Amino acid sequence: MNKDLPHIFEKFYRADNASRETIGGTGLGLAIANYIVQSHGGEIWVKSELGKGSTFSFALPLESTRSKRLKIKRREKLGGQPWKL
């Protein structure tokens, strides 16, 4: 297992490899992706094979029926508008 994999979703983490010098970046991209996915109740993961590349995947939960009903009730309460001014 690559020693970098457990850390790639941490803020400002950059892998220690030869291409690090030529490829720019701050090490925030995957941390931001992880935050967005987790804030929606999902999960993100990576499968990596040295010399072949990496595949990043994520899964998000479907909106529950209860959540949909609550949104409809709120909309009806507001006269069909998403917000009332």
UniProtKB/TrEMBL annotation:
It catalyses: ATP + protein L-histidine = ADP + protein N-phospho-L-histidine. Residues 1-64 form the Histidine kinase domain. It is an enzyme of class 2 (transferase). The keyword Transmembrane does not apply. Its EC number is 2.7.13.3. The keyword Transmembrane helix does not apply. One of its GO terms (cellular component) is plasma membrane. One of its GO terms (molecular function) is phosphorelay sensor kinase activity. Gene3D superfamilies: Histidine kinase-like ATPase, C-terminal domain. PANTHER family: OSMOSENSING HISTIDINE PROTEIN KINASE SLN1, TWO-COMPONENT HISTIDINE PROTEIN KINASE. This is histidine kinase. It comes from marine sediment metagenome.
